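Discussion board: Methods & Data

I've been asked by a reviewer to show the raw model output for two of the constructs in my manuscript, not just the figures. I'm not sure how much to include, so I'm pasting the format here to get opinions. Each protein appears as its amino acid sequence followed by a line of discrete structure tokens. Is this the kind of thing reviewers expect to see in a supplement, or should I convert it first? Here is construct A:
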Amino acid sequence: MPHPIMFDEADPILSRLRALALAFPDAAEKISHGRPAFFTTKVFAYYGGSVKVDGVYRQHEHSVLVLVDPDERAALLEEDHCFVPAYLGSSGWIGVDLTDDTDWDEVDELLDASYRGTAGSRRVAVLDSRRSRA
């Protein structure tokens, strides 16, 4: 049985995240466990997540999950808008809540770090080439 869809296609926050994530070389989108996932050969970001508190899952519907360097992860977890997501948190992923006041430059930097850690050297070289021309 497939997972139920857990997002609204018309969500403006998802649209903004989608534009950033799909700008990376060879990035594509798929639905994974009912949520948008952005990937090349490996997933580098998910839209939406949850945390388990006292045995109950609390949804963070408007969030991005990314895989970042352990030192950066520790610093981010000191911020109120960041959380350790259920399931993926034990593998180093972090969740960042997204709102109308989100610093989208920070989100782009987090996507960049996660992409670099999952995309492979050829794609990272393409990314570096594009960014040096910009």
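Construct B, same format:
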Amino acid sequence: MKALLQRVRRASVEVEGQCVGKIEQGLLVFLGLEKEDGEEALAKLISRILAYRVFADEQGRMNKSVADIAGGVLLVSQFTLAADTKKGLRPGFSTAAEPARARQLYEFALADLSNKHPVVASGEFGADMQISLLNDGPVTFLLEA
């Protein structure tokens, strides 16, 4: 599994012209799920995301987490993160979790995140989504589990 974290000043997700999720300062998290992924590893990744220090402290150093700043987390499922891009000119998706399993894991991740953090929003699994964001930095990290 892969989680692409972007530190944002704000971010939102629209589906068919309707806003389905938005946050102010915090993390936009794109989650790519693979065939071998499970709930235990996903729960650990969610805890790591919440504790990952990407926000500045009083000295300007990245020493604070999204939990420390009481920021929002916008979770968006993105199966293209699970693509195999090692060769060729077209991504392969044989490593991505099957849609039914990916939906189950995404819903688990969203529930786990909501239980651990007070400000959570989400995209819509499997939908054609339009993401708007104001990247802060830019600061972007790829976490793999």
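Answer (T.O., handling editor elsewhere):
This is acceptable in a supplement if you add a one-line summary per construct. For B, something like: The helical segments are 39-51, 99-116.
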